[in-house]
Amino acid sequence: MTGYGLANLPYGVFSTPGTSRRCGVRFGDQVLDLALALSDPVFAQPSLNAFMAQGRPAWTRVRSQVAEVLRSDLAPLHDLSAVSLHLPFEVGDYVDFYASEYHASNVGKIFRPGAQPLTPNWKHLPIGYHGRAGTVIVSGTDIKRPHGQRKLTPDAAPTYGPSVRMDFEAEIGFVIGTGSELGSPLTAADFEEHVFGVCLVNDWSSRDLQSWEYVPLGPFLGKSFATSVSPWIVPLPALSAARIPAPAQDPEPLAYLKDASGTFDLALEISLNGHVIGTPSFTSMYWTPAQMLAHMTVNGASVRTGDFYASGTVSGGTTDQLGCLLELSWGGARPFTLADGTTRTFLEDGDQITISATAPATDGTRLSLGEVKGRLVSS
After folding, report:
1. Euclidean distance between CA atoms 232 and 46, whole angstroms
2. Between the CA of residue 339 and those of 167, 184, 274, what are the distances in Å?
3. DSSP 270
4. C-beta of residue 233 within 8 angstroms of C-beta of residue 10
5. Are 166 and 375 in contact (CB under 8 A)?
6. Handedness of CA 298, 104, 130, 303 (dihedral sign)
7. Side-chain half-sphere CA neighbours of 80 within 13 A
8. What ranges make up the beta strands (E) of 169-261?
9. What is the pLDDT along the chain (379 residues), one digit of tens a residue?
10. First CA to last CA across the chain, in angstroms?
11. Are 147 and 162 in contact (CB under 8 A)?
12. Nearest partner of 344 among 358, 324, 373, 364, judged by Cα
């Protein structure tokens, strides 16, 4: 049961040959069929949205019922190898933040050499942008190399063609379970009432498209072609032992960003073609998940069931803790060598990125957040 015991119980959507999609819970290397186990039609639906919309009392009750069923000998289980996994929730809106000071500083140095690495507003508010919900895909889906405008040298005219600076970004995602009213901001204290659980995210990025288009409005086509998420959503109660105080913030944030809940101790691992190239920790993030939710709604914007927001690239202060190739190769200026002797600056066709993560569990072990993987293919 390593990583997927009773202390975890992540939710997902699966199908077996010849059957429709329905909701399940992973237990070890098996999947519990929730519709059969609990005789509840809400779990016979092809996404978790209807269940998530029921709110925290239902989430708490079902988690207890699932644990009771799994302790019995009557649990309707499928071998993981015999099922197909699907996008676990129907995505509403998608927001991507930029919450790592290490990542933001490195990107500033790479994209704006000679200028201040952080923009003047960075330590006053969690910066983010609205991504494209329709291109959020489940782990294991191939990624086609995008085409677009790129400016290959500073003095050259822009040209059209396939991206030549393809990258990944290792991130953590937070899935909204219950919505809010338009015009009624949420506070950091509302985090656990509205966020259902946590997933892994790969924010695929075309650095050449991005660097040409991002002034003055920020990410657009360099990001919107694909965002991969893991198939399992770890519910917040499973991460209660992973709660830790947030890093110190200076200057002190405004009152609406005050957060007593802190952050999460999540250990990430990034592999390129099976070779580990980074082990960032979520503990290094400057802005907390609850602060991101508060800022996302402070203007009165509402959230809906199935919305989710991502943390931005998780990076630390040392080379082994960097969460994207832009940082690892310093914008392509410093090729790095993999364990098999090959070198990379950015991704090549056929390269596969796998991002996994673990966290302290309530039973003293470590639970798994699963993995999000994707392979870049030529378009």
Report:
1. 14
2. 19, 52, 9
3. E
4. yes
5. no
6. negative
7. 12
8. 170-176, 195-202, 205-206, 227-229, 234-235, 243-244
9. 589 999 999 999 999 999 999 999 999 999 999 999 999 999 999 999 999 999 999 999 999 999 999 999 889 999 999 999 999 999 999 999 999 999 999 999 998 898 999 999 999 999 999 999 999 999 999 999 999 999 988 888 999 999 999 999 999 999 999 999 999 999 999 999 999 999 999 999 999 999 999 888 889 999 999 999 999 999 999 999 999 999 899 999 999 999 999 999 999 999 999 999 999 999 999 999 999 999 999 999 999 999 999 999 999 999 999 999 999 999 999 999 999 999 999 999 999 999 999 999 999 999 999 999 999 999 8
10. 40
11. yes
12. 324
Provide the annotated active-site residues: 103
143-144 and 366-377 beta bridge pairing:
parallel
Residue 151 contacts residue 158 (beta carbons within 8 Å)? yes
Give the Cα separation of 16 and 78 in Å (integer).
Answer: 9
Q: Give whole-number Cα distances, 363 to 5, 99, 152, 344, 359, in Å.
A: 9, 30, 52, 40, 12
Structure-derived torsion over alpha carbons of residues 174, 178, 182, 187, reported in degrees to the nearest 10: -60
Let me know: does 367 contact 8? Beta carbons within 8 Å.
yes
* Per-position b or e across 181-217, b if 16+ CB within 10 A of its CB: eeeebbbbebbeebbbbbbbbbbbbbbbbbbbbeeee
Burial of 260 by CB count in 10 Å (0-12 exposed, 13-18 middle, 19+ buried)?
exposed
Instruction: Please give the angle made by the CA atoms of 235, 241 and 247, to the nearest 5 degrees.
Output: 100
Evaluate whether 16 touches 268 at the Cβ level (below 8 Å). no
Query: Is residue 4 a contact partner of residue 358, using CB atoms and an 8 Å limit?
Result: no
> What is the value of pTM for the model shown?
0.97
DSSP 8-class letter at 233: B
Please give the structure tokens belonging to residue 350.
């056929």
